[in-house]
Specification:
The protein is an all-alpha fold. Helix content is 67%, strand content 0%. The model has no long low-confidence stretch (mean pLDDT 93).
């Protein structure tokens, strides 16, 4: 999963809000995946 593309500087408020929501969801998902990978390494999995 890749981070959503940032909107252009002339984007309207709705487009920016959508990007912010998508980017937040992406960041949370990435954080969970990284934490799982670290737990697996620590637990020999």
């Amino acid at each position: 999963m890749t981070s959503p593309d940032r909107p252009n500087s002339d984007a309207d408020i709705d487009e920016i809000a959508k990007w912010m929501e998508e980017d937040f969801d992406w960041a949370v998902t990435e954080g969970i995946q990284n934490a799982r990978e670290e737990d697996d390494k620590e637990n020999g999995g």
